[in-house]
Amino acid sequence: MVGSWDGSQSDDSSHFERGVDHIYEAFICPLTKEVMHDPVTLENGRTFEREAIEKYFKECSDTGKPPSCPLTSQTLSSTDVSPSIALRNTIQEWRSRNDAAKLDIARQALFIGNDENDVLQALMHVRQICRSIRSNRQGVRNFQLIRMIIDMLKSNSHKVRYKALQTLQVVVEGDEESKEILAEGDTVRTLVKFLSHEPSKGKEAAVSLLFELSKSETLCEKIGSVNGALILLVGLTSSNSVNVSIVEKADRTLENLERSKEIVKQMASYGRLQPLLGKILEGSLETKLSMATFLGDLALNNDMKVLVAQTVGSSLVDLMRSGDMPQREAALKALNNISSFDGSAKVLINIGILPPLIKDLFYIGPNNLPIRLKEVSATILANIVNIGYDFDKATLVSENRVEKLLYLISNTGPAIQCKLLEVLVGLTSCPKAVIHVVSAIKTLGAIISLVQFVEVRENNDLRLASVKLLHNLSPFMSEELAGALLGTAGQLGSLVAIISEKTPISEEQAAAAGLLAELPERDLGLTRELLAVGAFEKIISKVNGIRHGEIKGMRFTMNFLEGLVRILSRITFAFNNEPRAVAFCREFNVASLFIHLLQSNGQDNIQMVSAMALENLSLESVNLSRTPDLPPPSYCGSIFSCMSKPPVVTGLCRIHQGICSLRETFCLVEGEAVEKLVGLLDHENDKVVEASLAALSSLLEDGLEVEKGVQILDEADGIRHILNVLTETRTERLTRRAVWVVERILRIEFIAIEVAKEPNVSAALVDAFQNGDFRTRQIAENALKHIDKIPNFSAILPNMG
Predict the structure, then answer these.
(1) Alpha-carbon span 481 to 564, nearest angstrom
(2) What count of Cα atoms within 13 Å lies in the side-chain half-sphere of residue 510?
(3) pLDDT level of residue 21 (50, 70, 90 thresholds)
(4) Which of 332, 407, 582, 589 is most buried, with most CB under 10 Å away?
């Protein structure tokens, strides 16, 4: 009887076939109901299977019953049994004849296209024979049934393929010769294909058969050489399959395959790293070298890098310390591969990689590293110092190490120079370490040498590292950098060219813009040079491109834009000495751009710098606003003054009393910037508030009609916001600026009367009068006089002069 294909068919079913001898009743054990293998006889002459009757006697003993015959219930005096040798021989002869007949029947049935039931019955017989008598595997080979069973793997029936796999499993189990026969041709490739294409039961049978084959060392290479075998097996071990047996068998198969070093490497490339790591830990020196070399070139994700560092990091560091150059090279390359992620680099730091790494980098003498390996050491060190892990980088700048780094940079080639510069980039990113780096650069006068790398064109990585380093140094060495850039030909132009590149916004562009932004804003020579190389035109083009969405960039856009705005703002500091600055700002309507940038919400520095630039532009408005030409008086009017009338002039600026415009005279009133600046007085960032207040204070400067300026501020609801700034008592700088502006506002009598009623304002002015610096106290005193909190003695005492 043939059952379902998934395994419910019994291999022990009794089914009489033509050519198969009938089973005699004497062959059947009364207890198991199966043909006996080792018949034994009791004292009463009854015969049973040895294993079955011994189990029966044990049950009698366990329950306290006397031993008896299972058939007759007759009590026995002894549990001794006698082997039925004649019956056993007869059964063996019968079994041999029947097995031969069954194998012959199977050979006739195992053809593609035959009836499926006949094929399944034949496969069942083969399994029965192989399980019952191990020696009959030779008979299977003689009938070439293995090859015929293999052909059944090509069947269109899932049932047949599944039973063929099960049958092959039984046939080859423990039989090396059968395994060799099975592995001939493309059978292993077919089994591998089943790992991905068969249903769960078929997949389980395929992986079980591969596991059995993998027990043979000679077949491991065969399995590993099949395209896709290892990646599929590794995938099965890491899957969330509900079939635990598949996962277990795949894992055990891979364990058998680990005997091959080459397969271990292939497994590692598919994500199964532990075998390779185990050989680095426990293998021979030759094996460690081979595996570490492979690890150096292996593509690893971040989780894998952490695993490698945790498992073999110490072993790799030990290899790096060895006197054997091939071992050191293999270890360095492996460490380089895993040092580029924060998590793994942190592990390497904790296991002590830094001391030997630095020693290798700087050591010159017997058995020192060649330059190509010093480059690898520098790369590892650069990776480590540039990670986000907050370790004490200051320890790396002790013992003249920065000087040694600078010396190496001056005396090596571009590849290692790039990595050494990246080391300095990491060190200058650390507040504790940057001070030491700056000191060493100043001591050695190395800034000029470092600036020269900006002009490198054939090595983009080297140029990027140099720009990033100079950017990090610029807050601490702005004057030295400005001098170096002006003193060397082409360096400033190279930085401008980097900023102007027509590519998606890059890290290098953001760093170059940040570097130029940090240079002294009042350095007139630098501003003139930037004008000469057309920097400001290019910067305005970039700023507008970003504002209008024409220039794209995700990570570095905000930093790049901030740097551009800061560079552009420096031109507003050059009005007094550079006529081209005014001309440029007029031509490109710079004032309008800065007013638009005031609305860059969430970008505090851009808003602050824009307000500062607008202050400079507004202060220049006084010099640029002009009085219109008046028409000459009539003839009579020129003779008789009583007949002349003063001409009526319209369209004059309320604050500057001349002809103003945003583009030509940078007038904040004409540009409707006052309301936007007032809006920023509520900003959370004190620096933004201070810059905005300074820009507004330009409307109250000496030489202007203060009353008109106060009126303009009042119309924009600015007075209330300015008084709030004063009473909130933020920073000392902001307080000084607020006191100055409030004193100007209080010169208007009706406002002073109203403000005198505000106790908070009075208290803030009293505090400034008592605790401010000398100038602030003077201004606060005047403000208190305006609101009658201090008597104005100059108004009531006679002039004593």
Answers:
(1) 18
(2) 16
(3) low
(4) 332
Residue type, 28: I
Q: Encode pLDDT of 211-239 as tens digits.
A: 999 999 989 999 999 999 999 999 999 87
- The set of residues, in sequence order, having a beta carbon less than 8 Å from that of 448 and lying 6+ positions away, is 484, 487, 488
- Three-class SS state of 329: helix
Confidence at residue 146, expressed as pLDDT on a 0 to 100 scale: 85
Distance between CA atoms of residues 643 and 636, nearest Å:
7
DSSP for 445-470, written as a single string: TTHHHHHHGGG--S-HHHHHHHHHHH
Instruction: Give the global pTM.
Output: 0.75
Find the DSSP H helices in 648-705: 662-665, 674-679, 686-697
The CB-side HSE value for 605 (13 A sphere, CA atoms) comes to 13
Note the maximum CA span of the chain. 167
Tokens of 625: 């606003």
User: How high is the pLDDT of residue 299?
Assistant: 95
Which of 440, 356, 435 is closest to 402 using CA atoms? 440
Angle, vertex CA 490, rays to CA 484 and CA 492, nearest 5: 60
Name which of 17-26, 240-249, 253-262, 538-547 the model is least confident about.
17-26
CA dist., res. 453 & res. 456, Å (int): 5
All residues at 6 or more sequence positions from 515 whose CB lies less than 8 Å from its CB, including other chains: 467, 470, 471, 474, 481, 495, 563
